[in-house]
Every structure is written in C-alpha cells, then in structure tokens.
Fold:
Amino acid sequence: MNFQTVLDEIDTEIRPLLGAAGTVASYIPALARVPAEHFGIALHTRDGEEACAGDAREPFSIQSVSKLFTLTLAMRCLGDRLWERIGREPSGNPFNSLVQLEFEAGRPRNPFINAGALAVADRLVTQARAGECEGDGDRPGGGPRDARDDLLALMSDLAGEAVAFDAEVAASEAATGFRNVALVNFMKSFGKIDNDVADVLDMYFHQCAIRMSCAQLARAAGFLCRDGAHPLGRGRATDAGNVVTDRQARRINALMLTCGTYDAAGDVAFSIGLPCKSGVGGGIVAVVPDRLTLAVWSPALDASGNSLLGMKALELFVAKTGLSVF
Ligand code: DON
Structure:
C-alpha cells in the first residue's frame, strides 16, 4: 500500500472543508488564536516507514493527547499497582466532570478523563521524587527527579527529537484550570492524592502544554503498534528493550478505544474502529495495532471536544485502506 498517496488524497479531500464547521478551543488565548484552517496527518508503520501530508510538521498544543504518555510512564513503573487508584471504565460524562467522583469515593473512572490524569500525575510526582523507575531510555534510575522532566525525556526519546513545554500555555492552564483545581482537591479529600495539590496541578498543566507535530506524535506513539517495542528500535530496557510490555501496549490500546475520545468513544469505535486519544488542541493519535500509528491535527472541535476534521480524516483513512480493528 502506498501510504503517502493515501495521506495526500485525504489532505486534498479535507482541505476544502477547513474552517466551515466546528469551534476552536477558546478557554485560553494561545489556543483561541490558532487558525481553524490547519490540517495535518502523519503515520509511522511498525517497520519504521513514515508518511506526512498538509501541516504535519507544524507543532501544536497536544493537550490531552499527553494523557497517553503519562499513562505509559506510570504503567511501566507501577505495573498493575496503578489500578489501585484508577479505574478502566468509560465515564459517559464530559472529561472535566466532577459528579462521578462523589459517588465513587474519589476513584476516577479511567486515566483519560481529567480526574484520572490528575491521579496519574500524582503517581508520577511520587515516583520521580522517590527516584523510582528511570524516566527515559538513557538515564539510570536513582535520586529524586522532576516528573515534568521524566515526561519530556520520554517524549523526546520516543520522537527522536527534543520536545518542549509551551510556557504560555502552561501558565494559562494554571490561570484558568479551576475545575482541575477542584478535581484534585476533591480526590485529596478522599485520601486518593499523596502529594501537594499544587505539585500535581503543576505536572498536569505542563503536560497539557507540550507542543508537538503530527509527525512527532505518530512516531512517539509507535510503540503501540509494535507490541511495546521502541518506535526507533532502541530505548529503555523494561522487557527486552521495550517501552512497555506487549501486555501493557494491548491494555493502553484497549483504554484508548473505550475511553480515549471523551464521551464520544462509542461513536468513534462505531465509525472509525481504532484506538484513539484526542486533545482539545485538535490533535488525535490513532493506532492500527500491529500495523501503524497515525496522528492528525485540525483545531476546530466538535461538540464532544474532538477534532471535527481530524475524525473525518481518520474515517477516510479507514475507508481507503480497510485498516481497522474490526
Ligand atoms: O484540563 C483541561 O481542562 C484542558 N487542558 C483540556 C485538556 C484536554 O485536551 C481535554 N481533556 N481530556
């Protein structure tokens, strides 16, 4: 299959639709000023082949796509102990909802809603401070670390290029993130957060503020289509050189399919049939297990907070290639 041709065709079909529908996230200025007319798509195959079209090399705010990588860091350090604090069920509620936490005694439904990602951030702060588990492929463990550095090290190692936070976005997230402040305090009231809420929030607001391109994201997520093996064929030795074990990679894919696109996960499984993780910056990472990873970006969002044309592009990809879990 000629993937470059497929991506070029999708770019040609999507481009006339840009700006016509959907709403760019406006809760912070750095997102509100991104033009709706962007579209990028990139893929990385199990064998390392890459293809890109449109604005695939332009960095954008990955926002909640980062939840995929913080989950990866926590799973590979804690293994099944992570699930003592976080569930694995779709929430059926908006990503920043507080209501379910009250009924479920501060245990978030899954790691991809905000409450779950904050609980994961708490685990990452603990493991970095304790010097448990190294945070990237090259550094030995031992000694206190900063969880934000662990995440950047992982992302840079996976992407094969330096990845950074956008300081303006991190500051704006902190200035406007009142619901996240509420969520973490609420969980702490149930004894489910170990660290200071300020430290957990600082980690979370920074992870939302990572800037990456589709090309970098498709590559960085490559371990999910290779049974956990490093997308560039190197990396940290957890399991014969893998980023995560093959079992963990399957589980991350399962969570992406069931919980990765807010409360639209059922519709996404129905219409696209791929594990996906989206963010309000308009990015989506999708996985065809054992074949390839995709990243798409278009800033205008649908009512659920997923990229409208990003989802359309994934639908086109599945229709053109026949590649889907189902
Ligand atoms: O936490 C927030 O409210 C924003 N940074 C939105 C993050 C996002 O992409 C949606 N989350 N699931």
Observations:
- The two ends are 19 Å apart (CA to CA).
- Residues 43 and 294 are 4 Å apart (CA to CA).
- The first strand starts at residue 23 and ends at 24.
